[in-house]
Amino acid sequence: MPQPKTQNNQHIKKMADLLRQGATLTNLACPACHSPLFKLKSNDLWCAKCQKKVIVIKEGEETAKATSHMVLDTMEATLLAKVQEIQSRMQQEKNIEEIQKLGTTLSELLENLEKIRKIKRS
Asked: What percent of the chain has pLDDT over 90?
């Protein structure tokens, strides 16, 4: 089923923006939508249409191994968001006991963040 022209134009604009930002067009296609994939400066593959990172798994490579870095990145981003949330709540909180609870939670979040970063480095 053909896409409406406005949707196609939006995808083309996103692709042009990626090129302007230094991404390069690859000879690979998105497995979900078959749109061309772009290689970002970070060396990640990106689908402009789906607005998602794409991971290429080579023949014989384990899926879990190939996606583990992406999972760790997502976990790190989630923990950072929670750290910011707790920090914001601590600034507004007046009750000392609640501040202590938030401090304990913050400490645990930071410990987990450090563990994830160690795993990523190894």
From this structure: 57
